[in-house]
Design brief:
Elements lengths: L4 E9 L2 H34 L6 H14 L10 E2 L2 E2 L2 H25 L6 E10 L3 E2 L1
Antiparallel strand pairs: 1-4, 2-3, 4-5
Helix pairs in contact: 1-2, 1-3
């Protein structure tokens, strides 16, 4: 039978966990923004096509998104015709929240991100013949 040699190298890197946590925090910001943008975008489409406001799902969606669209509700008028509305305040809210999320994400990245450090603690394990260590 052919002898084989297996080499495993383990190394630790300073700041790796900190970088992973920073990455996770920024990804969480983008996830929350995506959910919010999706809900407000759905609200915009519902208003645009004149969805029945008495529908339970529409009421639920409007109830959730009213909180986020309310600060922008009086910035512009809302043209309407035949039950359909072109709600510019939803579009403005989407833009503002995207800019705020981007700014917060960049701020977290600048404050907490640590560049790659030197590799430390390199351990090398060599195995020959399927179990004999050297």
């Amino acid at each position: 039978m052919t002898d084989y040699k297996e080499v495993r190298t383990t190394q630790t890197e300073q700041g790796k966990e900190h970088r992973i946590n920073t990455f996770k925090a920024t990804q969480l910001i983008w996830l929350l923004l995506s959910i919010l943008e999706g809900l407000i975008g759905l609200r915009f489409i519902f208003k645009l096509i004149g969805v029945n406001a008495e529908n339970a799902f529409a009421q639920f969606l409007y109830g959730i998104t009213n909180i986020f669209v309310a600060p922008f509700a009086t910035l512009t008028g809302t043209p309407s015709a035949g039950g359909m509305q072109l709600e510019f305040s939803s579009l403005i809210a989407m833009l503002v929240y995207a800019l705020v999320a981007w700014a917060v994400e960049r701020l977290i990245w600048v404050i907490f991100y640590r560049p790659r450090g030197a590799v430390e603690g390199v351990t090398k394990t060599t195995t020959i013949d399927g179990g004999k260590s050297s």
